[in-house]
Design goal:
Largest sheet: 5 strands, mixed
CATH architecture of the largest domain: 3-Layer(aba) Sandwich
Shape: globular
Number of domains: 2
Order of helices and strands: HEHHEHEHEHHEEHEHEHEHEHHHHHH
Helix content: 40-55%
CATH superfamily of the largest domain: Periplasmic binding protein-like II
Structural class: alpha/beta
Radius of gyration: 24 Å
Length: about 350
């Protein structure tokens, strides 16, 4: 009888231990659902990889949907309305929305950009600049447009007014001695650019990878890299942003998002093989095939956004007339995640 009681006690103890272990294995809190606004460009690979690899889930986030937008301004408007919790946008439209649009934003993490070494080399080598800049300006080889100054007086497409395409092209035209105020700016989505150049609807169109590479593959010509001539020391160009209200009300969610982006960007930077995996992940958002994604200029994934990444483009935007004053960087830039 004593032996039987001891056996039952042992079984009960084991069962209780197993139950405790099972309970301990379960997450303390359910994952937080978020929606993220994206643009169909190659640099979306890191956030797609963060989902596919389980990085987001590990950090307590569940991305229920990637909401695709044709350009940053409508994505920022959706963010402000609460339709999404985080969106991708380059520094220029973020600064524009913050200062000119009066939208209280917070930059939480970097999305894409340039390395300092590449920036320095690009200033001396235009061919190298074209290889590292994922932006371009697509023209017909029979258009007579051979340089930036030739864009003056022409019809040029950008995905949104007052955003990165318009500001960087205007800067390049002005540096070349042309008058950017004479350009007839029109808005087109990236997939529309090539056919519009071919048909003569526009003289030139701003592109981002994979469409920059697609331009030359279609027999057209890229006249240069407007991004690399505008950004001289800035490393973070594309950024992840939320609203000041959301950041204040959901600090743990924002911290988890920052950590997830840091981990995904760090993975991409470790090796060419890793970068390949991240680039292939981007095809789920861009819709292009693997060969086209891998043929494009590779994305550089920074780990932090610095004050200079905001102040320097803002100063140049002021000089070009896009801003009336320098933005309040302290109010716009959140403290970045550092392990």
């Amino acid at each position: 009888m004593v032996k039987k009681r001891a056996a039952w006690a042992a079984l009960l103890t084991a069962a209780m231990t197993s139950a405790a272990l099972a309970a301990g294995a379960a997450p303390a809190h359910a994952a937080t659902d978020i929606k993220v606004g994206v643009i169909p460009i190659n640099s979306m690979g890191a956030i797609q990889y963060a989902v596919d690899s389980g990085i987001m889930a590990k950090n307590g986030l569940n991305v229920t949907e990637f909401v695709e937008f044709p350009a940053p301004p409508p994505s920022i408007a959706a963010l402000a309305s609460g339709a999404v919790q985080f969106v991708y946008a380059p520094s220029i439209p973020i600064i524009n929305a913050y200062e000119n649009g009066g939208i209280a934003l917070k930059i939480v993490a970097p999305a894409d950009g340039y390395s300092r070494a590449d920036l320095a080399k690009a200033k001396k080598d235009p061919a190298f600049a074209a290889k590292i800049d994922d932006t371009g300006v697509c023209v017909s080889p029979t258009s007579g447009i051979s340089g930036w100054k030739d864009l003056a007086g022409k019809t040029v497409s950008v995905p949104a007014r007052g955003a990165q395409g318009e500001v960087t092209i205007a800067s390049a035209v002005k540096k070349a001695g042309g008058d950017p105020s004479t350009i007839n700016w029109v808005t087109l989505t990236f997939p529309e650019v090539i056919s519009s150049v071919q048909s003569g609807k526009i003289a030139a169109g701003f592109t981002v990878e994979p469409f920059t590479t697609e331009c030359t593959a279609a027999g057209l010509r890229n006249i240069g890299a407007p991004g690399i001539q505008f950004f001289d020391t800035e490393q973070a160009i594309g950024m992840w942003v939320t609203t000041a209200t959301y950041a204040q009300q959901n600090p743990k969610v924002v911290a988890a998002f920052q950590k997830s982006i840091f981990e995904a960007n760090s993975f991409a930077k470790k090796s060419a093989a890793n970068l390949r995996k991240v680039t292939l992940a981007s095809t789920k958002i861009t819709g292009v095939d693997a060969a086209q994604a891998l043929a494009a200029n590779p994305t550089f994934y920074p780990l932090y956004v610095t004050r200079a990444d905001i102040t320097r483009p803002a100063t140049k935007m002021q000089e070009l007339g896009f801003l009336k004053k320098q933005p309040d960087v302290a109010g716009l830039l959140m403290r970045q995640y550092r392990p």
